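=== Structure Prediction Worksheet ===
Name of assembly: unnamed complex
Input type: mixed (protein and possibly other molecules)
Chain count: two
Listed entries:
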Amino acid sequence: MNTENEKRLDDLFKKKLEDPVDEIRYEEGDWDALEGMLDKSSKRKGIILMWPILSGVAALLLIALGIWLFRPKTNGQPDNTIAGHSTKDTIIDNSKIAKTRDTILDKNKAIAGVKDTILDKNASIATTKKDTILDKTQTIAHVNKADTKAYNGHFATNKKAPAINNNVPQQQAIPLKKDNQPAYVQQPVVNKKDANPGNSTLPNNLSNDNYAANQQTVVPPVQKQAPQQTVTPPPAANTAGLAANTPAKPNKAKPQMAYRPQYTLSVVAAPDLNGVSSFAQSKVGTNIGLTFAMGVSRKLTISTGALYSVKPYLTSFANYNNGLGYKWPVSPQSVTADCRMLDIPLNIGYQVYHKQQNKISIGTGLSSYIMLHESYKFTYNNMYGGASGPTNYTVPNPGRYFFGVMNLNATYERQINSKVGISIQPYLKVPLSNVGYSQVKLQTTGVAVGLSWNLNSLKTP
Amino acid sequence: MGDEELHQLIRGCIKQDRKCQKMLYKAFYGFSMGICLRYANDREEAAEVMNQGFFKVFTHIESFDISRPFKAWLGKIMMNVSIDYYRANLKMAYTEDLEQAEHISDGDVADKNLNYADLLAMVQKLPQAYRTVFNLFAIEGYSHEEIASMLNINAGTSKSNLHKARQKLKNMILKADSSAGNAGYSSGMDYSTPIVAIKAINMNGGYLNKGI
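=== Predicted Assembly ===
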């Protein structure tokens, strides 16, 4: 076939097939099919729009779960003690104690008129007749006969305890059996908060400290001793002061080995270089934002946040892909982009070095870009005074690009005090997918400088 | 459709107004289907591809620059969607030889009185790889280099496919001409491929996409 015939053949088809508008009949069924596609897509779009909200809720749940899982274990036990104590209060209230007898108190020495001392491997309980155990906080405890009655009543309910007669100055030692233990343990532990206003003289001012101290003191069972003969001075530890929330069973308490999660909030600022495919034509951008980090173990940290990011870049027109087929009258030489976005990273860090206040860790993760503004400037090669096309374009509805960028970073962190630290983080953002209207592989490198606050103290509980 | 009317429709489409979308769809149905039919094997596939194209249009309509010609933008989308739809087939090797066509003398193909349906049926009978190159070169006006980069083939393959496409088409035209010779021309084609387009002028109640 010669060239002329080829051209004729081409023209024949071109002429008839190029724009055959009148030849084609509209089919309603085709529109129905498209409408179905559009409906399905709008539902999916709804879910995508919900994504940031859903992820926020998920993050909050995760944090809440983290706090709940890693909370200090000691929190639970004082609650139990208080709960046990309130039972005791009720018992006393029920016995309708009206009278009280004065009790001699000493601020420094606790004189316990111990009728019977009950020892257990973990706890000792002193039942008192006229005197009671005093603590360093100058607690005044009033015990009277009626009180004793109350105790008697209570002991009686425990069956194992012999009846205590108010008029008999001496009482038998009450052997504490295992099945009675909970009731006895609860009795002497009284918190001020639980004091019944109507029974202000009741022996309910024994502090946890005193109780804990007594637990640590091994007091041999004393039987049939006069109250004055038995003096149980508060141990030195008492005056030294135990923490208010000392575990109720310190003998059993093990050293705290479990990791306590650290939550850190940081303000971060970062200058960086942005380029497409390489950093050859890179431009300087800026980032500023907040990050939140949660230490999940001694070595691992998960962090997220939001950074307002200005990413300008310059690239040759070859890298610019306007996707939906605008036919350029003249191809520009280069494109200058101005992108402003929210960078939402989700990173994991591994601590490789930790000595004193200095820490070094390496990290990786993914970033999502939520474009806020996207505009392009086109530069033409007008050396020969040639024609040019559009000079700029602002994307009306910039898109969202989830997990399209991989983060690689190394962090040096120095703790200034238990609350405040500074960090320097060189990083590289590697594109996994194309971002922006121009669909470019935008890579970034920079150094982030941060000031961080520990939301919980570094001290162990 | 005037520019103002078109821009109004586009604005409606940006707001995802279904009525505006349907009006735009109807207005450019003929134009879009005309493109997709040339790349497709049959009408059913063409409609599917066209709907994919319109789906892209409606979901990316906000990225259309209103100062540019809409029809060109739409046409490019339809072409790209068509190419993508058949992309897997574009590199298929065709071993059939074209010797049959070689000994047919060059006739004046342009003189043959063939209508749109006949010519479309011929194009649709071409293997996918030939058809795509023929469409892009002869109808859309791209060079072999451009076609090569669009289809991710090399320019030599593009030239070869075009040559084979032309040979086949010429063969079909000459056959059609000889078979139509006795009956006078009305519809000389007896290809088994279903006629995919019907002259709208013969249809009652059909939507006519005039003037766009």
